[in-house]
Amino acid sequence: TRVLVLNGPNLGRLGRRQPEIYGTTTFGELAGQCVEWGHAVGLDVEVRQTNHEGELLDWLNTAADEQTPVVLNAAAWTHYSYALLDACAQLTAPLVEVHISDPKQRPEEFRHRSVVTAYAVDVVAGHGTDGYRLALERLAAAL
Ligand code: DQA
């Protein structure tokens, strides 16, 4: 089964970005691991990252058209983008929300809300980049 692992803003700098919060695994390393973790559970994984909200919306709209399952780390858009909410609402195949940190445990109020969760079959947060493996396993289980 083909699966998209979609990543929002600033996640391209993983490994260099606030490593005390997000760890030292680079985005390129994580992308390679996701492909391997996917294969292990029978998924054909494609990993993407964008800093442009419209690009993420286009990817989600295509995923809706093609009924493609999605693992989504929408990063900061998670907390305030109603366009993202509307795009997630249109998905018909399972969606798993993933975060490297646990936004609900972080001090900033704005991180405590997610517009994605209502449309997700599962949320994985606070497991570092290994959380993507859990997310892919939960997606495989939901399929
Ligand atoms: C994040 C958490 C968000 O609050 C933050 O804006 C991110 C990354 C995470 O993976 O922990 O950019 O989604």
From TrEMBL:
Pfam families (UniProt xref): DHquinase_II
EC number: 4.2.1.10
Molecular function GO labels: 3-dehydroquinate dehydratase activity
Catalysed transformations (reactions): 3-dehydroquinate = 3-dehydroshikimate + H2O
InterPro entries reported in the protein's UniProt record: DHquinase_II (IPR001874), DHquinase_II_CS (IPR018509), DHquinase_II_sf (IPR036441)
UniProt entry keywords in alphabetical sequence: Amino-acid biosynthesis, Aromatic amino acid biosynthesis, Lyase
Amino-acid biosynthesis is among the record's keywords: yes
Binding site for substrate: N73, H79, D86, I100, S101, R111
Transition state stabilizer, annotated site positions: R17
GO biological processes: amino acid biosynthetic process; aromatic amino acid family biosynthetic process; chorismate biosynthetic process; quinate catabolic process
NCBIfam families the record matches: PRK05395.1-2 (NF003805), PRK05395.1-4 (NF003807)
Role noted for this protein: Catalyzes a trans-dehydration via an enolate intermediate.
Similarity comment: family membership: Belongs to the type-II 3-dehydroquinase family.
The protein, known as: 3-dehydroquinate dehydratase
Organism of this sequence: Nocardioides anomalus
